[in-house]
Write a structure and sequence with these properties.
homodimer; alpha/beta; Rossmann fold
Chain lengths: 351, 351
């Protein structure tokens, strides 16, 4: 489906974006990555090394889409994965989160709809928009009540995609991703979710910590399965729906997730700790996706079970960790060391 | 309830805000209005003339809340009605709408929660967040799917209020208002909704135009009833709910609304026209509110029937029209004459 097609991948040096870009390049697509590697967002040029000679990289913010209008014009499909994913950062620096997750997407889509009207745009949305679930598993009709700025801002961006699609200006699809894990997730950018934190600690030979009693449920999904969902959404002819949950193949407690991961890493242990204050208010309890819509309408299904996916992930970092861990910064901190600089730079580029 | 209390009313020189400020002042509250009268948003200092000597007016954008921190600190309750209401403007100038309806509210609430943690804040939300209804009447559980930027941006602001309330940082309530009409609505700022447009034309002795077949339903609510809803929400002790629909006492077709209004104005007629392109894509068909939650939990009910409310409205403008119509600008235009200036000014004040 993708051979000879041109794909634009925003956030394409980040975790999911780089895995998608690599897969697209291997399928024979012409790939342009847009990613300025904004501190804290997980972008890492090393991520696309396997296809470095086969992809173009534009080091610009998507808010500056006018400056890469040519790349937009020649694209057949856009995978829009740019943004900041940290819930914790969003509560510390809400305007930064608004800039990265909403303002920039408004500017990007305003440019896209003018330069390439009607183009398919697949947006990386998140299960986070549902907040603390009213029921499990959570389907796409579940009410939206985000528990932090990140969820609000990413929901606004998703609504841009859907509203402009209703108007026929773009052809948008939003994938609401559950917790994604796998190779190429940032380990030096903390606050990227508990799975990235687990991988970091196991890679460093440290034990795992679980907040609360550990009976909270999650349905982790391996990044290759998520990439497959993006590819299917990008090649779908006539979408019946525009919003799809993307959940994992198993629903597991945090205790079980940590137990499997520790067994794979061998020799490390799990301990329980009370919720730190910064995390407590944005905890959402148990979550599990109802992914029946994407199974039915796109024929997607997750193939990689957690044990297998986590084994592959740890294997990746066993060799590659020096590219993902700053040896001077081995203590994770939920702080953006240069956040002031980032905010100041964006302040004058905004609305 | 309000005697001796201090109330801050943002957007307090606008349509609903000024009616609320007048009522609060007459109830014996100390009222501070925050309203910079941004072009196109309906602010008009003349609106509060009846209580001019009894209210303080701060001519600042709510985004600059640090500059009126003292007024926030001494407030007992905040009525947050600042914003731009025009659907059409939002599609023409989406970044302007984002600035006025989202960015500024983020900054405002970040200041409020720091200076006056836990304060009751009642936000003027809108039925527009529901988009084209899936069913009638629309209750608060109806899915959200805004059809324009204005709806997306106002929904994000409402979510700020609710999310910060969940976290205990403010004590927020959002009222989702249906079409409001009454004295003090701007007549020179076009694109403020069809009821304002009708009043304008009748005040000028012009006939009414209806887009489409006129069988679309609405449940117009008179501004005094809306003011009452704000007052009740402001004095509620322990909210069971934080989101309330505020609908009118009758569900009427546009044909019936126009027929009643023309009869009151005497001597003008109704004609039907196809939807103009600028309006077509943001039309939502029929709408009617289910207001049973606010009736039940706040004891509110709308008292003014449309015929009575429209008679009062036309009576108001018969005497006051010179303060609401620029004689050099008697042709309504869905353009903000100075929008470029406004956007440029905001560009550097933003995120």
């Amino acid at each position: 489906m993708y051979t000879g097609k041109r794909a634009l991948v925003t956030g394409g040096l980040g975790f999911v974006g780089s895995n998608l870009a690599i897969r697209l390049a291997r399928l024979g697509a012409g790939v342009t990555i847009v990613d300025p590697c904004i501190k804290g967002c997980g972008g890492n040029p090393y991520n696309v090394r396997p296809v470095r000679d086969r992809v173009s990289i534009v080091s610009l913010d998507i808010a500056d889409a006018e400056q890469f209008a040519g790349a937009i014009a020649e694209s057949d499909v856009i995978f829009n994965l740019a943004g900041e994913v940290s819930h914790v950062h969003s509560m510390q620096y809400p305007e930064r989160d608004l800039q990265l997750n909403t303002v920039s997407h408004l500017r990007f889509l305003e440019t896209v709809k003018r330069i390439k009207p009607g183009i398919r745009v697949i947006y990386a949305s998140t299960r986070q928009v549902y907040g603390a679930p009213d029921y499990l598993p959570v389907d796409e009709s579940h009410p939206v009540h985000p528990v932090d700025f990140n969820g609000i801002h990413k929901y606004a961006a998703a609504m841009y995609h859907l509203m402009l699609s209703e108007r026929g200006e773009i052809d948008g699809i939003a994938l609401r991703l559950t917790n994604v894990y796998g190779p190429r997730v940032a380990l030096s950018a903390p606050c990227q979710g508990f799975l990235s934190h687990f991988v970091r600690r196991l890679t460093l030979g440290q034990g795992l910590e679980i907040y609360g009693d550990g009976e909270q449920l999650r349905d982790p999904v391996y990044v290759d399965d998520v990439v497959e969902a993006f590819l299917l959404a990008g090649s779908l002819r006539e979408p019946q729906s525009r919003v799809f949950n993307v959940g994992g193949p198993e629903v597991l407690s945090l205790n079980r997730i940590a137990g499997i991961a520790c067994r794979l890493a061998a020799g490390v242990e799990v301990c329980h700790r009370p919720f730190p204050e910064s995390q407590r208010t944005i905890d959402i309890g148990s979550y599990a996706s109802d992914s029946s819509r994407i199974r039915r309408e796109l024929g997607w299904q997750p193939k990689v079970r957690f044990e297998e996916g986590m084994a592959r992930t740890l294997e990746y970092y066993r060799a590659e960790w020096p590219h993902y861990l700053d040896p001077d910064d081995l203590e994770p901190r939920c702080q953006l060391p240069e956040h002031r600089g980032v905010v100041r730079r964006l302040r004058y580029a905004a609305v």
